[in-house]
């Protein structure tokens, strides 16, 4: 017996529709109804309910004691829920599913094929320099039928040359270093030390800072490398203090930066300390205490998620209040997930519902500058959409001040 076109299309596909059909009672009933109609009637087969747009997130939901991946998920899901409530795109809803890579490259490589089984249209905001380096160096995206919207971190090696299917929303690490160096220059800083982790993000960070520092008037920029253990960090912190630099930039994973700052304070370094955006204020306060965290400057690549000055902030907060009411305090990673979802949805609308990587890539590049309520994204000149940066400082109560 030959199946009608709708059922042929249904059983030719795997993943999201199969999952939807077996997990939702209404869709199970619809499937049975259509199956009966197609097998017993010579009339044209009625159309099935449209399947979801599937989006995947692979990230360190365990293994990294920082809220990056869970907060990104919460922000993205809140926006997808808002779009779904308004009818979706082309009448199809968004479904976000997550996989845990435990913050290591092997975990990411194992999770990616599982994600692809569900035929997602995009991978959203993967986290970790090791995972992203593996994605690019081993060419795992070449034959993957999706695009990647945003990535954490913003290391230069992930962007130059990067990959044509990988689109970065957040500003690069170089943009953050430029903001830090400019911040130091306004404070009269001319000597600088970098305490960096024995990872690509740390080694590349030192190289970038040493290259850029003379252009901002710095007369000395040195570095100390450390493994992520107490003994190594303690020795590096003493070395940094002995160098007597006016300011220190710490570079590495979120927990490394928090532990490094604690060791610097314990070693008696009480001058300016700056960190990359991946370090959250709550994590630093937990590790170093309010006294140790006070005055630490953290570069930011997105506006204050709890601020009031931009339409984006009001829109984001309203979406979170409505669709993620359990979240009471918003982080930059919540906003990053929300914006990643918004950029993807806008690209899908511009592609008129064509989810192919080619169509979504063309939609992103041809859109020109897009204004998301005061935060602008532009992929017309390359695969990095934003260079927005700002400095924030932790106050005496452990809160971020922008």
TrEMBL record:
A Pfam family per the record: Peripla_BP_6
Q: Do the record's keywords include Signal?
A: yes
**Residue stretches in coiled coil:** none
Q: Where is the Leucine-binding protein domain?
A: 58-393
Which keywords does UniProt give here? Signal
Cytoplasm found in the keyword field: no
Kindly give the InterPro entries that the UniProt entry links to this protein. Leu-bd, Peripla_BP_I
Q: Which family does it belong to?
A: Belongs to the leucine-binding protein family.
Q: What is this protein called?
A: ABC transporter substrate-binding protein
Taxonomic source organism = Curvibacter microcysteis
